Amino acid sequence: MRKVLIQFAHPAVARSKINKALRAAVEDLEEVTFNDLYAAYPDFLIDVKREQELCETHGVIIFQHPFYWYSTPAIVKEWMDLVLEYGWAYGTKARGLEGKLFLQALTAGGDDSTYRTDGFNEFTIAELTSPYRATAKLCKMIWLPPFAVLGIHRGLHSNKINAYAEEYRRAVIALRDGTLDIRQVQQDLYLNSDLNSVIRRR
Amino acid sequence: MEYFLLQLFIFLAAAAIAVPVARKLGLGSVLGYLIAGIIIGPFCLSLISDIEEVMHFTEFGVVMMLFLVGLELKPSLLWQMRTPILGMGGAQVAISSLLIGGVAFFFLPWQQAVAIGLILSLSSTAIVLQTLREKGLMKTSAGRSVFSVLLFQDLAVIPMLAVLPLLATVAMHSEGSHDSTLFDIGSLPGYLRILVTLLAIFSIFFLGKFASRPMFRAIAATKVREIFVAAALALVVGISLLMTAVGLSPALGTFLAGVVLADSEYRHELESDLEPFKGLLLGIFFISIGASLNFTLIGEEILLIAGLTFGLLGIKWLVLVTIGLIFGMAKKDRSLLAIALAQGGEFAFVLFQFSKANGVLPTETIEPLISAVAISMFLAPLLFLVHERFISSRQIEEDSQRETDMIERSEHKVILAGFGRLGTDLGRFLISAGIKPVILDHDAANVDVLRKFGFEVYYGDITRLDLLEAAGAAESELLIITIGDKDKASELVELVKKHYPHLKIAVNASDRSAAYQLMDLGITVIQRETFGSALALGQDALKLLGFDPYEAYRLKRLFRKKDEEMMPELYRMHREDEDQYVSMYQKHNQDLEELMGLDQNIDTEELDKAWTAKNPEN
After folding, report:
1. Which residues in chain B are closer than 8 Å to A45, comparing Cβ atoms?
2. Which chain A residue is nearest to residue B613, measuring alpha carbons?
3. Which stretches does DSSP call E strand in chain A?
4. Is there a contact between B615 and A91 if contact means CB atoms under 8 Å apart?
5. Structure confidence by residue, pLDDT tens digits, B165-194
6. pLDDT in tens, B442-495
7. ipTM tops 0.90
8. Are A85 and B613 in contact (CB < 8 Å)?
9. CA-based nearest residue in chain A for residue B606
10. Please, is B128 exposed, middle or buried when counting C-beta atoms within 10 Å of its C-beta (0-12, 13-18, 19+)?
11. Which residues lie across from B575 on neighbouring strands?
């Protein structure tokens, strides 16, 4: 059993149907802490100590956010700049994040076909999220491919939204209960490429 | 004098006993008053006399009620309601009059039938509005429809008074029509009469629109509350007298005055000052209706009167249901409309009296009809109860199955107490965020200026419970207090915590000790008035000294955060010092010392860590 910390970053949640649905799907889960960064630090004055303590008491750290400019909303960058201190997050003696699971849960406008070398965006999600992969590595974390909800610009049908929310819930539960096959999922493009094949049945 | 006081005592005591009992039994206050009337009336304890006199005097309660109703209706809203008023109201009066008159025509000459039809088409404004208010239905769509019809009926009384004398069949006793105390308009030639009437209506508009504001401002400036009450009463009484003098309905006149004043900043103050008078007058009016039920006659002609009562209720109910259908009302609204307006009204008493005096209807026809009307009025609150039990409870179940709608921002109800230097900017900010607060301030000059800019600002002493009530504290979500006087602010907080525990409270404190005082009362959202600008000025100072602008900003934010963290500690120390009975001056110094002492511990190292930390491994 690993405790899950969801670092939620959305500057205008009220306008995001999908992020609201994803949030609602996991917020009530036991052993899951939901930390709304924009709500906690509306003026970006991040409480470094509190954030480090939150990280230390959880085994899985998920950044849930919309994919803005091929990256995260600004507060996540600020969070990394401030919280990931030398000697705590990285450095030879740093143990703050060691061995913890790192996951991005992102929602993006373009669909999967646009995030290809020959597609509109010319880079894959894996390439675009590589700075986070590198960060996770430097912090000795176990990186997982992102949980991706793509193609939301076309507008997702509420059935589809519910299906994604349900998948997200399953993924978070599996991470918490340790039923996710980490090795196998690391081969996939997305965490939710094929959830059934990576979640072990008990 | 003693006799008058005794009568007054009997009325008041009967009301004080009967109304709480009736409410406890879930019957509503109107029914309580009616029952009290029957008990103290000639057929039970026989404690009172001159019932007709009392009823006549207390009819003034209806006049006051219409003034208050007018206060809540802005002219724009009234204009929006023109279709239901003319359409539904007109249809109700016309069709009910026709049907009732048609039935009466089988038994009576046509003139009498027409008179009866017209008179019985009216419903009881007093009972219905009082009951709707009590049940909180006034602002529902059904409530609005009911009100529209009632309004049309009140208007219709005026032409009825003109038409009825033309229907005279009985030889006239030269009793003379109602004569006014000031002057008799009847003595004037026709064109002058019209001119005088128009002049009277115009003067109400002028009074409300232009004269009332400076007048009320001058009175408010005296800060003697009873003078304001006196002025409010004088206004209503004066308008009624004027209207009576020119032969118009006083209820209509004061209603117009109310509408004209609905935009005024003194609206809440007027409302809360007149409300108790209206309540008492109406209460006594209802008691006198109860007392005037002639049980001897009812006993003798029970079948006739029962037939008349149920015939009346039945016909009007049917007409109303049909109108509801035609105007496409929802089923439950239709049912409320029909139940609410099926009874006869207090104007019927007036008009029956009037037709008797003008020789339209003979006494033996009127007597059973008056009893039937009184009984139907007595049944009205009971019908409301039946409606509530059987129809709306079913509806609530249906409603609760619907998903709750998203709350829109404009539906947040916020009261802003105090609109001085601080409140002004706060109010502007809230409005920019789409939240329109109800603003209360006790500085009349302030209020005037701000209203010019479209703020909804009202004049009044915010620590008065009735004003809070009038401002809608019961339905509000948040109270923001920005009054400078800290004792007044504390008083207000205590009042609100006692009477409106659901209200969230945010307070501005003039200084640190004011903040402590509020913390004593359990308030958690407190902003110290000068703190924010002190820090902003500090940030500017650092920039002028050549600090990096972003660093200056971050230093300010950090200081603010540390200060907020220190607050509980300082509060504890402050209260401990108090236990040691140090003098005020010493105390201030001590507070300052403790503050500075803690400040020295603030470390700004945290600030530097993030961006300046070097990675020694590189």
Report:
1. 554, 557-558, 561
2. A86
3. 4-8, 32-36, 60-66, 101-107, 142-143, 147-149
4. yes
5. 788 776 554 444 444 444 555 566 667 777
6. 776 667 676 776 667 777 777 878 788 878 888 889 999 988 788 888 889 988
7. no
8. yes
9. A48
10. buried
11. none
